[in-house]
Amino acid sequence: MSKLSQKHLLGIKDITLEDIELIFETADNFKEVINRPIKKVPSLRDVTIANVFFENSTRTRLSFELAQKRLSADVINFSASNSSVKKGETLLDTVNNILAMKVDMIVMRHASPGAPHYLSKHIKANIINAGDGTHEHPTQALLDTFSIREKLGEIAGKKVAIIGDILHSRVALSNIFALQKLGAKIMVCGPPTLLPKFIGHLGVEVEFDVRKALQWCDVANVLRIQLERQQIKYFPSLREYSLYYGITKKLLDSLKKQIVIMHPGPINRGVELSSDAADSQHSIILDQVENGVAVRMAVLYLLAGTK
Amino acid sequence: MRAESLYLDRAMQKKLIFDSAHLDITISRLCQQLIENHNDFSDTVIIGMQPRGIFLAEIIHQKLKKDTKREIPLGYLDATFHRDDFRRREIPAKANETRVSFTIEAKKVVLVDDVLFTGRSIRAAMDAMIAFGRPATVELLVLIDRKRNRELPIAADYVGKEVNTLASQRVLVELEAQGYKQNKIWLINKD
Fold it and tell me: Which domains are delineated in chain A?
């Protein structure tokens, strides 16, 4: 069956391994399309998509918008900062007003975990979660795992370390769900204050020493320190964090093996990742960005594809 | 060429259109027709349509290479993203690999597919092809031309065999290259 099991993409937790594999196969074809001289196909010609962003985003939003335009969809953009949300309109009212203009799909980012799930119970349009608070960011996990598959050939059996601010990261949670479904071994690493208390219950290994984590893994997915979500101090200073958890070229060279470095962006250069490590041959950070467009095209195509 | 009438009676569910020997002769003829029209093939490229036209394209490519001692560029084209039935199906159409490693700008393109039916996939293919340049000419080669089922004004330039079929029937192409024991083409009743 070449059809997704879900009508929406709310989180990786809700989709199956077959769904992920179908998305990857479709993304392979779209990757070929976006490397053509003419990068556009007419598949979503009569589909209108609203990108509804209640939270800031550059990369994800650009990537979605580009994916939609490459598929010939009509796109409208909405950001909360200059909208009636400021005047007190509720989420459901805002979205219903957008849908009244005959919109077929909603791509939403919201600061509250579960906001897209709530919405999916009340509206008929397809919803793609582009990040809900500290909960899930499914398309990021799909493009991360797609990039690992592209670089290493397969994911099953590979060791992936997720390093940094796990507590505030939706990328970490979605990645854990995706990697588990694909059969990878997972380790999380960071200062104890930035690891959720019960993270071990998800079936991942926990490590506090970044050197040991790097020595163990085939792939290190380095996360950003999300200062904007930290109302209290979780560690004494950024300098101290980078001394203990920052990944440098020197540290990578001292390992006895080649590992792959990933980062969902935006990088705090010199904090979680030094410039020489981010720009080294270990890094596939820019491949992740390219794959992001192909993977999002696949998700949009598969969700919009049925009657 | 007279179209063969292939209406099956109720008892008959399956009829052989081509056996292996006959198919070889027909493919040889198609190659000779190509050689007649394309001289030295200096500006010609062959594009096989995914998913089933690529096997025939490969056979023709090999045969032409043997007969003319020339390496003619061969590509695979998938027109899934250019189809006109998107959002009109229960399941989104599954895509296949496109591999066109050359530009078709100012080339003579020979588009190859196994069966020509409604003409809609050929329309989509011509649309998809434009992404690789503006060809000088486009010709269509098909093994089976299902007459009187066309929904668009499209015709093939090189035809293996014309057959009269009903929309409720299906043409089944079994090629050794696809993993079948013998090259055979069948007409079957769908129900």
Answer: 12-136+289-304 (3.40.50.1370), 138-288 (3.40.50.1370)
